[in-house]
């Protein structure tokens, strides 16, 4: 254990995700367990630049494990993208005597952490918190499981009205450049077709599949469309294209949007956040730096930031196969 580790700062950055509060709670309680002072930084890197710091104790994190969002608030700071912004942030950290930082967020958050460490020598450990599940070195990110359940619940409701009116619904889900939410929620909600960025099936294949469905007598259908899918048409253009080229479909579009980021975290996300919060503090105590803690086959592991944010994750081919069989 590093003897000089006396003060650890914690912040949440980028898009919020259910379970971030549970992660902050675990960091604060681990600090208290190891007799380290914990400093909460508000509004992510923007709060770091502006010196919005507050001492957090176990009392500060009472009754937060079940709450969505992040009580430390979050931001996508433009100023932190500049050298000057990061210098201001480092000055605040040094003035406050913060020995190391724990950042909870996604790829943008980890990119910022790399620069902060490189330019100012501040040790940083990351915790993956994003609904997108688009980070390497962890099987799951905090917030993903809750978002999946929110999406499945929403699609179940859409299916009720789709089937009552014999309609085809195109449902857009989040995920940025990753199709994990679309593919998993789509299979879970029994969608007839799923469009994801990792695999550009092309509009024509979707049309063939719809044609087949119609011939088989199907009167209502759900197509899940990942926001980053690569057909070249947005969801409204896709709906128009189907309407113009296939007879017999009454089409509606539903963009689920930010409801996917809200709500109480699932039990899975709370447990994952608790494990990773403890793991992050212990990684710093072992002297690790510039790494993200993740979960791999139920074991808490660390991976360097560069690996965590490199490239896209491979498509779950087995799930793709399952979808093809179960929609026949
Ligand atoms: O990264 C999380 C996420 O919700 C993505 O799925 C989405 O593309 C993006 O953030 C939306 O960001 P904002 O809330 O800044 O519009």
Tally the structural domains.
2
Roughly what fraction of the amino acids lie in strands? 15-25%
How many strands, what sense, and barrel or not for the largest sheet?
Answer: 7 strands, mixed
Secondary structure class reads alpha/beta
Number of DSSP E strands: 11
**Beginning-to-end CA distance, first to last residue:** 57 Å
Output the CATH topology of the largest domain: Rossmann fold
In angstroms, what is the radius of gyration? 22 Å
Question: Segments where pLDDT lies below 50 for 5+ residues?
Answer: none
The amount of helix comes to 40-55%
List the bound ligands.
Answer: 6-O-phosphono-beta-D-fructofuranose
């Amino acid at each position: 254990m590093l003897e000089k580790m006396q003060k650890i700062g914690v912040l949440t950055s980028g898009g919020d995700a259910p379970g971030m509060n549970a992660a902050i709670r675990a960091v604060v309680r681990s600090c208290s367990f190891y007799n380290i002072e914990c400093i909460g930084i508000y509004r992510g890197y923007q709060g770091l630049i502006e010196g919005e710091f507050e001492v957090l104790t176990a009392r500060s994190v009472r009754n937060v494990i079940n709450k969505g969002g992040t009580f430390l608030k979050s931001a996508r700071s433009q100023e932190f993208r500049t050298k000057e912004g990061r210098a201001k942030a480092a000055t605040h950290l040094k003035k406050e005597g913060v020995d190391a930082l724990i950042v909870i967020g996604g790829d943008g958050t980890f990119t910022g952490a790399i620069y902060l460490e490189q330019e100012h020598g501040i040790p940083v450990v990351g915790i993956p918190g994003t609904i997108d599940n688009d980070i390497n070195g962890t099987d799951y990110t905090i917030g993903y499981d809750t978002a999946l359940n929110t999406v499945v619940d929403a699609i179940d409701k859409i299916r009720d009205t789709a089937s009552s009116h014999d309609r085809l619904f195109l449902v857009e889900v989040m995920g940025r450049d990753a199709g994990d939410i679309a593919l998993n929620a789509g299979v879970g909600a029994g969608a007839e077709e799923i469009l994801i960025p990792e695999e550009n099936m092309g509009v024509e294949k979707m049309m063939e599949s719809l044609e087949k469905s119609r011939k088989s007598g199907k009167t209502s259908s759900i197509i899940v469309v990942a926001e980053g899918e690569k057909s070249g048409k947005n969801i409204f253009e896709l709906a128009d294209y189907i309407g113009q080229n296939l007879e017999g479909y009454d089409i509606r579009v539903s963009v689920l949007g930010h409801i996917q980021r809200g709500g109480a975290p699932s039990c899975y996300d709370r447990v994952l956040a608790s494990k990773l919060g403890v793991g992050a503090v212990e990684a710093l105590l072992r002297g690790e730096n510039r790494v993200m803690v993740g979960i791999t086959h139920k074991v808490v592991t660390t991976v360097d930031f560069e690996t965590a944010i490199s490239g896209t994750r491979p498509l779950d081919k087995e799930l793709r196969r399952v979808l093809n069989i179960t929609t026949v």
